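Q: What structure does this chain adopt?
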Amino acid sequence: MIRKAITSTFILIFCLILQSTLLRYISFLEVIPNLYLIYLVYTSISNGGLHGTVCGFVSGFIEDAISISPLGFHALIKTIIASIYSSFKGLIILDRVVMPMIFILLATVLNRILASSIISLFSLSVPLHSIFSKFFLIEIGYNIILTPVVFLIADGIKQRFSPRGYE
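A:
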């Protein structure tokens, strides 16, 4: 379990670095896809329990450390999202396309609602587009389109590195 959590956290950190560097070149109206959120939902659903929650907190904390947001801002949001999606393990049978896309749509909206709520609650000065803006709709579109690809790659990584006979 610890090895899986460490591996997932490193993959999340890789997604975060990729998202903040290379994906800037494929941005549309300065909006980039949220690979980090997509993989967090994948690892939370596929591993469940404490695994997703720990990965969400650690990677969110690292995101706070490299961004301009206050320390704990992303850690709280990602921990809540990972905890919610971790509770779905074993309850839902995922197909390859539709259910992951629905989960990512909901996770993207939840991510923005939680961020807006925390910003309002604590009167923070963190830049954030409104839920009703065209930028948010572009982000949702990016995330939904990339979901099947990220889930497919993540399944391949999981099967390649997981020991035979263990889930």
